[in-house]
């Protein structure tokens, strides 16, 4: 074993290596207004930060002034939170942009992610279909966290599994995105689920 | 400015947006001029090298270098410099090409290994 390599994630050499914290990320997805930013804020050590990307229908070219006056620009924001652990590990939580047309950003968020939490609202279950499709298609492990809004109808997790046509191994849990302990449980469920599913996957790959 | 504004809502100062369009900082380049990849949670760190003669770092380059004296995850850097991620990636490409900055990849593998997962789980359980 290489004792100089202090964690399994960074592969580099150089004088600054010892100072470099290992980093990991989890994606928080779900429909607009389902509570992604609230969930991130409940466990993040920082107020959820926002970085913004100006978007336009046209690609940017230096000499391209044609049609500038009609060019429409929107901004796509991504929220993120951060948790630093005693082990030096820094875990980032990324909320997906509300509008699902920004798929290219999802790829950025999802690449190398540990896994994803798809948040569902029982009043608008269909809102999370797109997220579930995305993670299934890209083979990114995810769990479903049902955010229990005060005025939303209560369902058993099994009913929600059926409504979302999830495979039996995908955990479905009820949560309150405002509550730190509840969110902690959601993230722990995800981490445990990913450990099990990844170890099955690697065994299957070896056989 | 009077309380009655005949033109409706006006934007001043920060609300009016940047004076310089974001990609003007990169001379219109939207992709890094570098083979390095810059994942959101990859960590960048200044090497302390001086720039070569043909490269003159702009104010944004210099700001990034100052912030990267300590190893800094790209997402934190982006938030700190308050520029779009795409712009930051172009500037990081310039700096890594010059050897002034180094990327320590956290995301070389698309799938995290068991050791990292164990660290995450232990960390969350100790919260």
Structural features, described:
The complex is a heterodimer of chains A (about 210) and B (about 130). Chain A is an alpha/beta fold and about 210 residues long. Chain A has a single domain, classed as Rossmann fold, CATH 3.40.50.300. Chain A contains five helices and seven strands. A seven-stranded mixed beta sheet of chain A has the order 2-3-4-1-5-6-7, with helices on both faces. Chain A starts with about 20 loop residues before the first strand and ends with a helix. The N terminus of chain A is likely disordered. In chain B, about 35% of the residues lie in helices and about 10% in strands. Chain B has four helices and three strands, in the order E-H-E-H-H-E-H. The relative contact order of chain B is 0.19. The model of chain B has no long low-confidence stretch (mean pLDDT about 85).
Into which percent range does the helicity of residues of chain B fall? 25-40%
Mean pLDDT of chain B: 86
What overall geometry of chain A do the principal axes of the alpha carbons give? globular
- The CATH topology label of chain B is Arc Repressor Mutant, subunit A
- Major beta-sheet overview of chain A: 7 strands, mixed
Low-confidence segments of chain B: none
Please write the CATH class name of chain A: Alpha Beta
Arithmetic mean of pLDDT of chain A: 80
* Radius of gyration of chain B (Å): 19 Å
Largest interface: A-B, 53 and 48 residues
Strand order of the largest sheet of chain B: 2-1-3
CATH architecture of chain B: Orthogonal Bundle
| Secondary structure tally, helices of chain B | 4
Give the number of helices of chain A. 5
């Amino acid at each position: 074993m290489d004792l100089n390599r202090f964690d399994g994630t960074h592969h580099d050499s150089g004088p600054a290596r010892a100072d470099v914290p290992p980093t990991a990320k989890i994606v928080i997805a779900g429909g607009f207004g389902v509570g992604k930013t609230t969930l991130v804020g409940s466990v993040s050590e920082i107020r959820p930060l926002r970085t913004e990307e100006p978007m336009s229908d046209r690609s940017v070219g230096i000499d391209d002034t044609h049609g500038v006056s009609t060019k429409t620009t929107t901004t796509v924001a991504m929220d993120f939170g951060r948790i630093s652990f005693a082990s030096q590990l820094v875990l980032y939580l990324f909320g997906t942009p509300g509008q699902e047309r920004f798929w290219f950003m999802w790829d950025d968020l999802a690449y190398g992610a540990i896994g994803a939490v798809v948040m569902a609202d029982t009043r608008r279950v269909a809102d999370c279909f797109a997220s579930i499709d995305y993670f299934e298609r890209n083979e990114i492990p995810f769990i479903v966290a049902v955010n229990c809004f005060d005025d939303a109808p209560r369902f058993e997790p099994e009913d929600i599994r059926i409504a979302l046509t999830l495979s039996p191994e995908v955990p479905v849990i009820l949560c309150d995105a405002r509550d730190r302990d509840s969110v902690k449980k959601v993230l722990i469920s995800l981490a445990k689920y990913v450990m099990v599913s990844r170890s099955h996957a690697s065994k299957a790959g070896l056989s | 400015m009077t309380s009655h504004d005949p033109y409706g809502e006006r934007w001043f100062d920060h609300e009016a947006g940047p004076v310089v369009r974001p990609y003007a900082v990169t001379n219109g380049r939207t992709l890094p001029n570098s083979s390095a990849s810059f994942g959101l949670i990859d960590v960048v760190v200044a090497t302390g090298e001086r720039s070569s003669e043909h490269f003159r770092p702009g104010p944004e380059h210099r700001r990034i270098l100052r912030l990267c004296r300590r190893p800094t995850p790209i997402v934190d850097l982006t938030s700190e410099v308050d520029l779009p991620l795409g712009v930051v990636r172009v500037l990081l490409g310039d700096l890594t090409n010059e050897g002034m900055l180094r990327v320590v990849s956290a995301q070389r593998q698309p799938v995290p290994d068991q050791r990292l997962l164990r660290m995450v789980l232990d960390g969350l359980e100790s919260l």
